[in-house]
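Entry 14. Ran structure prediction on the chain below.
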Amino acid sequence: MSKNYSQYQKRHLEYVHNRVAKAIMDYKLIENGDKVLVAISGGKDSLVMLDALSVVRKYGLVDFSVHALHIDITDVDYKIDRKKIADICRDRDVTFEVISAEADIENRGKKAPCFVCSWHRRKLIFSYAKENGFKKVAMGHHKDDAVETLLINMAYHGNISSLPAKLSMFDGKILLIRPLLLLNNKDTAEYANIRKYPALKSECPFEDTTKRDTAREIVSHLQKIHPKALNNIFNSMGNIDQEYLPE
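Output, structure tokens:
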């Protein structure tokens, strides 16, 4: 770790690394010999995940390799700094590949643009994983994402569900994992700031029209009422008292 970092910065980097290591071990996300495909959106969370995984693999807890993939949807104005991200990957001995494709956003009908774009990205990520022998695909969702998803599913779908730490897909051929699930948005934001990760060259034009923004505002308001609201809602998903719920 660079000597240019302050003690606070070193402690925060180590905190993030340790939380990712804890998630890997507690949830059994990665096993010896795994090839882990890291989905790189270009935002801070995916870069924090990439960096943390590249550090944690040196701990010797589990023997695994890390590979990065970015899906470039050409008909959405969302651009990453490809060169800087490639440099980050090279410095961490991580292979990096970019796949370009169209999502046909203009002909999406009544479907939300974010849904269409996300569907195409995931389809290409999983296809790449299956074609190249990756059994683990890592996504950069953190605790805030899990809580927001819970609220969205409850409010819009009448369903109590969220983002699990791991999810078996395609008859067990691929395991989707979320190594950042024990970290919150402030943790990853501070990490990205310390590492000076590049900002997106062009933000998604549909970013501010999603249900997630509404859920984020609700969580923010709850945290003003009670500072531990985010953690408590997250922990409540593992502390369900069926006796006090309607059948």
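Strands lie at 34-39, 64-73, 95-101, 136-138, 166-169, 174-177. Will compare against last week's run tomorrow.
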